[in-house]
User: Fold these one by one.
Assistant:
Number 1:
Amino acid sequence: MNIQEYIASGILEQYVLGTLSSGEEREVLANAAQYPEIHAELKKIEAALERYAMLNAIIPPEELKAEILKKIDDGTAPPPSSQSDDKSDKSGGGFGTLLSWLPYILLPLLLLTAVWGYFGHQGNKDAQEARLKMGQDLTDCRTKNGDLIDTLTFYRAAIKFVNDKNTRAVAMTGNEKLPGASTTIHTNTAFKVTYFAVNELPPPPEGKQYQLWAIKDGTPQSLGVFDISPDPIAVDYVSNPDAYAVSLEQRGGVAVPTDVRIVGAVKS
Amino acid sequence: MESNIVALLKQRDKEAIELLYEHYSPALYGMILRIIPNEALAQEVLQDVFVKIWNNADKYDADKGKLFTWLAQIARNAAKDALRSSQYKQDAKTDSLADNVGNDSSLSHNPRITDSGLRKTIDGLDEKYREIIDLLYFQGYSHSEAAKKLDIPIGTLKSRVRKAILELRKILGNELIIIFLMMTINTNL
């Protein structure tokens, strides 16, 4: 089987989207079990879609969690959307009786409402404003909390990635033209993913840009130009390169490096 | 975390549901709301989804895919079922829920992306790709339904699906290899 062709066919995306027949699903699973490349590709598709769903997340109301736990505790699961039906006729013949009692119920209620309205209006207005503000504060807190969770998840993932048994770090140091400069490549051989982090790097001169390279069998392969950022940058995975390098080039990059400034050899 | 939750779920430990809720309820709720813009109904469906997860825990097989892929499938199916039955009930009414489906402007909710940088990157996903991912992944359209809705041949749709997800992967790529493949992939390669 041509694995690249199989991956390019789009069948793995369809598998994750759940649009395949069960026979086709079995075939994908069998292939994924046999070929690590297919397995890895499948995981990447799943991870991307999961992350996309996380980014489109909407926090449900707080009280829902307790209701769900209660339903599970009760061991009963009433079907959804059963609420609006069949409510009207339960009291059946009692309706006329209720009507005759209505004035006796309504009159004291009306009186109470008038008194409450008179004395309670101002206090109620204040309370309502306070409640509105609290609601707004709660929404802000939830948003901030969501952002913090995202940030925390990011750093936990960074630590996990760096410490993963299949991740190798390549320390890259500046040559005599750029002493003190330092960047790092982290590359995971199992998942075939690489990212590049800038530790110490002066800003490039006007009109210039740094460009990252992987060098394999003496041939440089461009991994793209980059701007200095505190965040790691995902770059193309190259299997078994001899070294990585950063050169200083005209903005937009070049085909072959002209001015190498940072080098890191890959230890085998 | 994912493997912990799965282990608890298989042991019928209710803590699994609490953990699942903490980690996945916003993503699932976001998906459900794409199919059912009515919040009250969407919340009922979300409850229903968790009960289904609990009742079908033994059916989850980690070899077949990540936990979230399974959860998302349950959420999509439950939302589609609920939509169908609400349409059935509202048969006589003119403005059924379905009229709102696929119409993003009808959603009063904002997804949680407050990081403007990331929001911009996601917005950078070509509209034709975003539309495809939204229809198939968030709204659970079949290929033929999506092809019909977008008025393109099914072959074009299929090849566009891969391109769309590749594009998404590229955009998310800078997010530390998609949060290191959502942190939880078994490294049994």
Note: Chain A is about 45% helix and 20% strand.
Number 2:
Amino acid sequence: MTTLDLIRMALRNLWRTRLRSSLTILGVVIGIGALISMVAFGSGMEKNVTDAFTTSGLFSRITVTPVKLDMNRPLESLTDTSGISVALDDDLLDNIKKMSGVSDAFGEIQQPAKVRLGEHETTLTYTGIDPEVGKTKAYQDLLAGTFLTDDSLGQAVISTSLLRRLKIRIDGEDMERAKKKDTANVYTYVKAEDLIGDTLLLSTASFNPMQMMGAMMGNQDANPLSERSSALVIVGVREINHDGPSASKGGDLLIPEGFAAGIPSIGFNSITEFLRKGSGGSDKYATIQVTVASPNDLTPVRKELEDMGLNVFALAEQMKEIRRAFLAVNAVLGVVGFIALIVAGLGIINTLLMSILERTREIGIMKAIGGSEGQIKGVFFGEAAVIGLVGAIGGIILGWLVTLAAGAIINMKIQEMGEAPVDLFYFPWWLILGSIGFAIGLSLIAGLYPAARAARIDPVEALRWS
Amino acid sequence: MSFIEINHLQKIYRKATVTVPAVNDISFTIEKGEFLAIVGKSGSGKSTLLNLLGGLDTPTSGEILFDGANLFGEGKDGLVKHRRHRVGMVFQSFQLILGQTALENVELALAFGGISRSERRARALALLEQVGLADRADHYPTELSGGEAQRVAIARALANDPDILLADEPTGNLDTQTGEMILGLLQELNRQGRTVIMITHDPDMAKVAQRTIRMQDGQLQNS
């Protein structure tokens, strides 16, 4: 009796009671299908999130920001900068660039401003950035045009999300659908290329402390805030989805750092900066982006920056938390599928016990003509294994079809909302192999008791059946 | 030393409050190549004796020696080997597996005996030919007449070339003419050198045997 013999016999016996066998197998199919589609959904979500982070190049990035205002500190100590932090200025930037493990660092100036393009205007926080940064991956994905090319010119790279606020939509593949939904004709539809070379008007407010004093003294003409406009030429358009990781503050409008430094501005973003300004330690940059040479450098560099008294944020470290969260999500989804499989396992036990009852005489015959207990166990294990294998293959197909259908329906809704379709489900190889192994394993466990019971049947008793 | 020695064999069935001694202290010997008939009424214990000889059942006490070795001395494995290689059993109700063809029924016994797949088919066909049923090989038991079914059962009993054939009322479900044909087949197999032990309640059938022993209430009757 070889394994092949057992499998052939199992197929034969299952075929003899095909209705019952197929119902039992269907139980396994549904169990595996549920498990697979659940875990594929969890894996798909995790993959979408991690892929988005990995391709954005943000994993090797550390963002340095000034220390936030601590409301618990006594008010008078707020102006005392010694204990708070180092100012984010060019000296600090040079020091960071010299640190080991740091491949590059650049500062970002961020200021609030008003922008106008055509008839519409909106307010935002613009970012003054070194045009060299365009070489890094995070800024290479442009819909049209180029990145900033000259540090001293009034150039601008704008985002689709800014354009949307300016009532302009980029002509893309989903435009026809978007146009149909836009019944009030709110938006103007243009091609990204056509925006290159257009002029954007940036209005900023500047602050004059002397005028402030005058205003406080009661001088009606004194206005501490004065407004000035700068013209910017659009050189590039990049896509920003608000849910994406690149939708950080200030990313909607990028202008050269050198040019930004020349724009008169209010000079501070927050009350801490304002208070600190009076005491001399001024932040030139709103943030300093540090790129590490390799992911291994991330932790030591981060530690060193923290020791310098800086406020540090690294996405890669947040990723650990995100992964842990997904592990929990996958476990919960897996448990739901697992319960379906347990029910299927009970179905297998039931079917095999029924089969043994019906085939008691047959088992007696097998013993009488030389079948050992092991061989008789093998016959029933064979049946359990075939149920498991066929059920697993069917379950994978079912799970795949379910995710295909669910994915199509969900993506239809997503596209109706004007967003790009996503792959919601992901089938890693370990899920496919694991579920086949799991189904067969479960079936064999389910077959343990029935097989042992079959092997114990007394042939003399069994042969009396007829 | 005799081929088969039965020493003080006893099998007691305990059912609830009563104990039934189905085989009660039996001792006798069987020689190699013998055709032995065991005759007795229903309930005389003759089937229990045959099941013990076939290794399907274990005794309460006593022993059966085949070539001097106790059948029950090696536990379950010994009994499996005995059923697989030393004895072939034929039953009154044929005991064929209904879901398998005549050929497959014979092949199953060969499979248990460890014969390779490639060899099985040829040997099973040869065995069916030996009992004159080569043309019925692909028929299912329900499509066979009683005589044909019993001949398939005999072919299966011969699958692993046993020295001993144990037949429990082999003609009990057959008409007289077919029964005689089956008896003729058993005689033929006996002439080829196999020891045949046959149970029957019909004294006429027992006449083909070289020796007849009678059983009553689990014990031998001298005749």
Note: The two ends of chain A are 26 Å apart (CA to CA).
